[in-house]
Design goal:
Elements (H helix, E strand, L loop, with lengths): L12 E7 L2 H13 L4 E4 L1 H8 L4 E6 L3 H7 L4
Antiparallel strand pairs: 1-3, 2-3
Length: 75
């Protein structure tokens, strides 16, 4: 069933950046938004609720990871 096959790079999320500074999180999200790279921030709610703020992971689909890492390399 070819139509049921989905590339792993389109369904697998990979971490492209670990940050703990709210300003860096906002900057990373803005850069990825501008580049139209779909992303999610993993861990921001739990750590913020428990400890004020902790390290979070910026994740993108595997197919966008190399490009995202390049865009975020200065953060």
């Amino acid at each position: 069933m070819q139509e049921d096959f989905v590339e792993a790079s389109e369904t697998t999320l990979v971490t492209v950046l670990n940050v703990n500074n709210p300003a860096d999180i906002a900057l990373a999200k803005s850069i990825l938004d501008d580049a139209k790279i779909r992303h999610m921030v993993k861990g921001d709610r739990v750590l913020q609720d428990l400890y004020g703020m902790g390290q979070v992971e910026i994740q993108v689909f595997a197919s966008d990871a190399e490009r995202a890492r390049g865009l975020l390399s200065d953060i």
